[in-house]
Amino acid sequence: MNAHSSVSHRKGALTTRMRRGTITCPVCNHDAGIRDSDQETELVKNLWCICLNATCGHTFKMQLSFVYTISPSSIEVPGLTLPQAPPHFVRHIYPAGPPGGHAPDPNQIDLFDDADEDPEPDRTDAAA
After folding, report:
1. Could you give the CA distance from residue 86 to residue 68 in angstroms, rounded to a whole number?
2. What does the DSSP assignment read for 33-74?
3. N or C: which end of the chain has fewer CB within 10 A?
4. CA 34 remoteness from chain centre
5. 67 within 8 A of 83, measured Cβ to Cβ
6. Among 45, 46, 42, 44, which Cα is nearest to 79's?
């Protein structure tokens, strides 16, 4: 089961529903809302939640925490050191240009072939 799924016990059957951006009540597995939040540390946020099931009404605190970086940001923040993902999760970053520094593929169309040429003359000026 992934982070966006929840377990439903409706009608005695155990099923999995996919939902995005929701919190699930740990008591009744109904949707819960985030009523407030505060920053515990640079990498941990507290979420104050309430179950949206009127019969349950459970209120609880959850923590949202940073685990690791999969693809690094292009913004450098001095003094911020984030944990890196395990090697099998890390995205490879390739340098700009053709792979291996070889000449461009002759079958690839160059979008900027005409960039140095003058644009066509404006037809409205010629008619005047």
Report:
1. 8
2. EEEEEEESSSSEEEEEEEES-TTT--EEEEEEE---BSS--S
3. C
4. 19
5. yes
6. 42
Give the Cα separation of 108 and 55 in Å (integer): 63
CA distance 34 to 62: 9
Give me the pLDDT at residue 40, please.
Answer: 96
Helix (H, G, I), strand (E, B) or coil at 24: strand
Please say whether the beta carbons of 35 and 2 come within 8 A.
no
CB atoms near residue 33 (< 10 Å): 13
CB 32 within 8 A of CB 19: no
Residue with tokens 């009608």: 11
Worst-scoring range by mean pLDDT, 31-35, 69-73, 82-86, 121-125?
121-125
Q: Running DSSP on this structure, what letter comes out for residue 84?
A: B
